[in-house]
Here is the input.
Amino acid sequence: MTKVLISGASVAGPALAYFLSDHCDVTVVERAPGPRDSGWAIDFRGGAIEVLAELGISDRIRDLDTRSRGTAVLDADGAKTGELPREVFSGELEVPKRDLTRLLHEITADRARYVFDDSITSIRDGHVEFERSPAADYDLVIGADGVYSKVRRLAFGPAGLLHLGLSGVGFSMPNHLGLDHSGLLWQHGGAFVYLFSGNDPDRLTVGLSFGTESPELDRRSRAEQERATRAAFAGHGWEIPRLLDAMAAADDFWFGSTCQVRIDSWSAGRVALVGDAGYCAAPTSGMGTSQALIGARTLARCLLETSDHEAALVAYERELRPYVAENQEIGRAHAQSLTATPA
Here is the structure.
């Protein structure tokens, strides 16, 4: 039986494990100490709805839908200037990311071997070394470990990350605005605020985004990230001071930059990439989760259709590249519209 190692237990990794596990011996390694319970709400669009059905979790996902009713657009003073329909931010279905991650782990826990609190340190023609576990040999190693993929760095080198000019923080706080399955989008200059309250009426999800020249802040300390955020929003009124105070107190603080991954090939020998690790389209595309699920299903199908893994990986990339290119163009266009200097 083919031995497959998947690095990353967020979305693409467990989905791939599900589709391969009836025919392969699958191990999933994840550097976090357990299934991840963080992240903003994520949405599903187009063919990803079919993948949820194939995973057998469609009904459970629909039960978790945030049931967003849309987003009000505000000016610098907080006055409403327009309304965006649900689909802009929430797609056809939207759930908290932690719920999807939990479900994917639940349906694969007895189909694949999970190794948490560990990470790959070396890959040589299927021979893999780890930080904690003994070295082992695998027929295939799949990087499903996100935009800053360690597998990509080890097997393909440091290139491939394209910064699109935005960074930002996410956290939650008490819902003092009383939002009810709805959102607010505030924008002034190069600073943006997105607020949303979904299935937990007492909590408000907060996103504060601003223009940056590189993703360097992603590697800095939380204190440095908070300082950069405060500097970007300095002098603004409305709810900004209160949001910044809540940021400092948040225990679910998250920081990330808007990037794409663009490399010439998604495979090298016995190593391949799936989801954000190989072809992140950026959060501004709205397609990250859908692309991860569709990518996992496509990769699994191609691998199971032939015993020649090299031919399978070529077929996977040939089939998926046009879809990824379209999503990446959407991600770039939306990022450019947000970072463009007003006339």
Summary: DSSP finds eleven helices and 18 strands in the chain.
